[in-house]
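Renewal narrative, Specific Aim 1. Our central claim is that a sequence can be written position by position from structural information alone. The example that follows is taken directly from our test logs and has not been curated for this report. It begins with the C-alpha cells describing the chain, in the order in which they were read.
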C-alpha cells in the first residue's frame, strides 16, 4: 500500500503531463499512460464560478456607518501620534525662516518688475 505522501507525488507528476498534452475541454476525462495502467481516470476540475455578493440590507447600512466612524477615529488617533513625532520649530527659528521667505519674495518681485518694465519700453519703441 502507498503512503499518502507518495500519492500526492504521483499526482504532481500527472499534472505536469497534463500541461504538455493536447488541449482538452473542461470536465473531460483525462487518461494518462500511468492512469490507464492503474485504471483510475482523472476528471479535470471546471474553473471556479463567480460567487454572487449578497444583497445589501438595512442592517449592512447601519454597520457601514459604524465602520466609517471607527475608521475616522482610527485616523484621528494615528494623526495625533504622528504630530507628536514632529520636531516643531522654536519661535526664533520660525521668525528667521519667515524673514527669509519675505525677503526672497520681495527680491523676486522687484526683479520681475524690472524685466516687465524693460519689455514694455522695448515693445513701445518697436511698435510706436
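The sequence written for that structure reads:
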Amino acid at each position: 500500500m502507498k503512503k499518502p505522501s507518495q500519492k500526492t507525488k504521483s499526482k504532481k507528476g500527472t499534472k505536469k503531463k497534463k500541461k504538455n498534452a493536447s488541449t482538452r475541454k473542461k470536465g473531460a476525462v483525462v487518461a494518462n499512460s500511468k492512469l490507464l495502467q492503474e485504471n483510475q481516470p482523472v476528471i479535470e476540475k471546471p474553473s471556479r464560478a463567480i460567487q454572487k455578493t449578497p444583497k445589501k440590507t438595512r442592517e449592512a447600512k447601519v454597520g457601514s456607518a459604524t465602520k466609517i466612524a471607527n475608521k475616522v477615529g482610527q485616523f484621528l488617533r494615528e494623526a495625533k501620534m504622528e504630530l507628536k513625532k514632529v520636531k516643531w520649530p522654536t519661535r526664533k527659528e520660525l521668525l528667521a525662516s519667515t524673514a527669509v521667505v519675505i525677503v526672497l519674495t520681495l527680491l523676486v518681485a522687484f526683479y520681475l518688475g524690472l524685466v516687465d518694465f524693460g519689455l514694455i519700453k522695448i515693445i513701445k519703441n518697436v511698435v510706436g
